[in-house]
Amino acid sequence: MDFTFTEEQQAAVEAARAVFADVAADGVPSPALTPGAVADDFDRPLWGRLAASDLLGLVLAEEHGGAGLDAIALCLVLREAARVLARVPLLEHCATAMAVQAHGSPELAAALLPGAGRGTLVLTAAAHGRSGHDPAELAVVPRRDGDAWILEGTQTAVPWAHGADWIAVPAHTGEGEAVLALVPRTAEGLALAEQVSTSGERLAELALDGVRVAATHLIETPGAWERLRQLLATGTCALALGLGENVLTMTSQYTAKREQFGFPVATFQAVAVQAADRYIDLRAMEVTLWQAAWRLDAATGGGGPLPSSGDVAVAKIWASEGVRRVVQTAQHLHGGFGADTDYPLHRYHAWAKQLELQLGPAAAHEEALGDLLAAHPLA
């Protein structure tokens, strides 16, 4: 497989690096030092800079003011965002916008996408179900009411919901395919209860009590929710990769200058072997990420012995296990210094744990992959 990125994708990376150059992980609020959520809202100034650099419209078509790029470009930018622990809903916003663009009605696209590209309207998605372990689409039940739909149910751990303008909510009638409803945060009957992530960010339990949704705001296209879920999972893998790469760089720099017995600890065989193992983890995370992102791109993804959900499952297994091992080794090789709250490593560790479990830990995706292999024999 050729992993060479296009000029447009590389330009997106350069633009992202320019925006994130002024973001320091040391300045990210620490969950170890802040009771409750680290902040009430995401980083609005950074969000504005992303909008000014046209990165929020990266995956939107030109007719909506975007650059018309794909899932790979989004993952490249997410990778850069995670290196500095950027506190913005970039993944959820862009993934939801892609779902609206691909499957939403013209009225819905016209209402949401121009503002989404400019950053004046923020999107997020409810993808964790009632408990974080059951399928998200089963947590909400829709029923028709004339020319509209009524939603009842609860979704947990909705990221950035308190600061979002619209929330994508999967739902299932019990028959056929799941549907995807775009619900304004201020809708009557919608309530948000505060939850806090492992990384200290403010999440929300989303309760829907007779929320009325216009038919034009409901996406009934088969596979729309599944594709959005896969894109969210793949984007999470990109975040884990960027975070892990920066943590390994921090570890390399620290062990190169930390001396014992008159020598840098990086020259000790035990240290070098552990660092090499983590480098291998990162390369495996990277190759499975680009395989999954490539399969999600309808224009180039092509076929395969398994549906694209198989590639996404493999990527998430490696991302969950790999990022955990990388931060654990980093803490070990840093010694007591790694736990110092004046040093940013503990922030990366908290974010890594959140990404490891987000949209399911490795075990959940191993089970899903096993089901796919049973349904699609390779021989």
Task: Please name the defining characteristics of this protein.
379 residues; alpha+beta; four-stranded mixed β-sheet; 10 helices; 10 strands
Shape by Cα distribution: globular
The overall pLDDT average reads 94
Number of strands: 10
Radius of gyration: 21 Å
**Main sheet summary:** 4 strands, mixed
SSE order, one letter for each helix or strand? HHHHHEEEEEEEEHEEHHHH
Number of helices: 10
Percent in helix: 40-55%
Instruction: List low-confidence stretches.
Output: none
Derived from helix and strand composition plus strand pairing, the structural class reads alpha+beta
Strand content: 15-25%
Distance between the termini: 22 Å
Strand order of the largest sheet: 1-4-5-8
